[in-house]
Specification:
This protein is an alpha/beta fold. 25% of the residues lie in helices and 16% in strands. It has helices spanning 3-11, 49-59, 87-95, 106-113, 127-130; strands spanning 32-36, 64-67, 79-80, 100-103, 118-122, 140-144. 28% of the residues are buried. InterPro entries: Glyco_trans_9. This is Glycosyltransferase family 9 (Heptosyltransferase).
């Protein structure tokens, strides 16, 4: 059961699509996708984002990648919106993007509100319980480590194995 369904059931509430007021901000010129790959939790750290970005740029040279979040990941070939946009401006960017990719985080769930196709990487949370709830399954790709391997904890001070 998804966390949202569990909360709604236990609180006696109905699930409805969330709403966020968008605030206009400068969009990248042409087609673009959004990306959020950094988090203060070590368990949400994925060391190969630059390789993923390089593959996207190689296969889609005219597509721009707008990096969102509070912390810049110092990635090459991305437009840096980190720390420069509010939640409302991030909503505007995501709503106008072709796709969102990154970690299980607020921007991934924001993309779901707008039914933006998404690719989401999971670490310490289970994709079956935390997936972007409002995205149609055909527009969603969820990636999770095999469950028979050591899993990161919730600690933001965990040592990398």
């Amino acid at each position: 059961m998804h966390f949202l369904e569990c909360y709604a059931l236990n609180c006696g509430l109905k699930i409805d699509r969330p709403f966020i007021e968008e605030e206009e901000t400068t969009l990248p010129e042409g087609d673009f996708i959004t990306f959020h790959g950094t988090h203060s939790f070590q368990s949400k750290t994925y060391e190969n984002w630059q390789a993923v970005i390089d593959l996207v740029v190689q296969d889609f040279p005219n597509l721009k990648i707008a990096e969102l979040g509070t912390e810049n990941g110092n990635f090459n070939n991305v437009l840096d919106y980190c720390g420069k946009t509010s939640f409302n401006q991030s909503a505007y960017l995501i709503k106008h993007s072709q796709l969102h990719f990154g970690i299980d985080s607020f921007p991934a769930h924001l993309a779901s509100c707008f039914e933006i196709p998404s690719v989401v990487v999971y670490s310490h949370t289970y994709k079956e319980q935390c997936y972007p709830y409002f995205t149609k399954p055909k527009k969603l790709r969820l990636i999770q480590a095999p469950l028979n391997t050591p899993r990161p904890s919730y600690s933001n001070r965990e040592k990398v194995p």
